[in-house]
Write a structure and sequence with these properties.
The chain is α+β, with helices and mostly antiparallel strands. It has a domain of 61 residues. It is built from four helices and four strands. The chain has a four-stranded antiparallel sheet with strand order 1-2-3-4. A hairpin with a 5-residue loop joins strand 3 and strand 4. Helix 2 runs antiparallel to helix 3. The protein is elongated, with a radius of gyration of 23 Å. The two termini are 36 Å apart. The structure holds zinc ion. Zinc ion binds next to loops.
Length: 135
């Protein structure tokens, strides 16, 4: 049982827990104010570390990846409902074809909306600040 306490992660002194998840794992981030509050460092329990700029960039990357994932899922829904419609027609199954077709069209519209959101996303260029960071 003595190892149990040793194995527990202890927050760094002066750190505050956030509600933000770590981009590198499933942990939550704590924030530490450094250099008299001029620099914020975010760390998770396994040691992933981010500055404000690198954390924002990592979250922007997460959002883009999630958007593409949703777009792909919606396109899969279109393909599968299309195949299902053909199957229902060929086999003469008593399944609501109009409902399937409506869902296929809805998935098509939603996929297009997601692609539009990806195109419209304007990510702030933080490069000038990153060159000054030592995080
Ligand atoms: Zn982490």
């Amino acid at each position: 049982m003595e190892n149990y306490l040793d194995a527990q992660q202890k927050p760094e002194p002066g750190s505050q827990a956030t509600l933000i998840s770590c981009p590198g794992c499933t942990g939550v981030l704590s924030v530490i104010a450094e250099r008299g509050g001029a620099h914020l460092r975010f760390v998770c329990s396994v040691g992933h570390s981010y500055s404000l700029q690198t954390l924002l960039q990592a979250k922007e990357d997460d959002v883009e990846r999630a958007f593409w994932s949703v777009a792909a899922f919606l396109e899969h829904i279109q393909m599968i409902t299309g195949m299902f419609l053909q199957y229902v027609e060929r086999e003469g199954l008593p399944i609501d074809k109009e409902s399937l077709e409506n869902r296929r069209r809805q998935a098509e519209v939603h996929a297009e909306q997601i692609r539009q959101m990806i195109d419209e996303t304007e990510v702030t260029d933080m490069e000038p600040h990153l060159t000054d960071e030592r995080a």
